[in-house]
TrEMBL record:
It comes from Lachnoanaerobaculum saburreum F0468. The keyword Endoplasmic reticulum does not apply. This is DNA-binding helix-turn-helix protein. The keyword Methyltransferase does not apply. It comes from the Bacteria. Residues 184-282 form the HTH araC/xylS-type domain. Transmembrane segments: none annotated. GO terms for molecular function: DNA-binding transcription factor activity; sequence-specific DNA binding. Pfam families: HTH_18. The lineage of its organism: Bacteria, Bacillati, Bacillota, Clostridia, Lachnospirales. Keywords: DNA-binding, Transcription, Transcription regulation.
Amino acid sequence: MFDNIRFNFLYIDTYSFGKNWVYPESIVPYNMLRYIEFGSGTFFIDDEEFVVSKSQIVYIPKGSKLSCYTTSDNFSFTSIRFTNSVYFEGGDFLKDYYGISNVMEGIDEKVYFEKIYHYIKEEDPARMFFVRGYMELLIGSLIKKSNIMHPEHALKLMKSEEYTSENLVNRIKKATAKIDGRIQVVLDYVILHPSEEYTPQSLANMAGLSKQRFSALFKEQVGKSPMVYIKDLKLTTAARKLLVNNAPISDIAYGVGYKDPNYFIREFKVAFGYTPRQYRLAAKE
């Protein structure tokens, strides 16, 4: 059912803090996995308290209310930010369906954090393939561990009407059937060329369909209208660029096809809850 679900890597870095570090409460605009390198700290995720220490992994779903502080003289963690390709209505896909806990022992997954960090720093045209691969392995390892730790959750999935195929499809806002080849051609092209200008007609021409038929088929298969998908792609690409280089915000806006940086800033804040500048600064805190 879930062959088309993808996890979109955004950023990774390692942070180190002293004993007085406090992260004020904020809403997280992406998913995060944090591997605790050393020290201890306390995390509040949606008002639930978690005390964490070395070699544990903290999972923070998108949209969570997060605050945290250190409880040791030195505290360090490696943090991965990512999104997934589906919206799971009324909850979080990894937590609610696969049973991933907010805090898990993570010594076995440390290697995946190290590999992702290594490849993202490489000047290699193949690096993103390795990053995506290790990202999938990391999440797969956590899902497998969750099922071993909580077999009752797997049993619940088999018995509960909430998790029947029909109900899951209704909760997942994306078609999970095989993508039509004509739509796939468009998806492959725009992912590689997010800075170009597109219209419903130009995309329909690419697919060899009428504008009306293309728009209907695209929404049926992808779960979004073509232009909403293009906008989300441009903004996600911009978010990644904000975190991995220090280019001016206007250059990033132009680089993903926005002619007006001020309009880009407004669109970005609507999507992520932060202005581009705030988003970049938050990564350095």
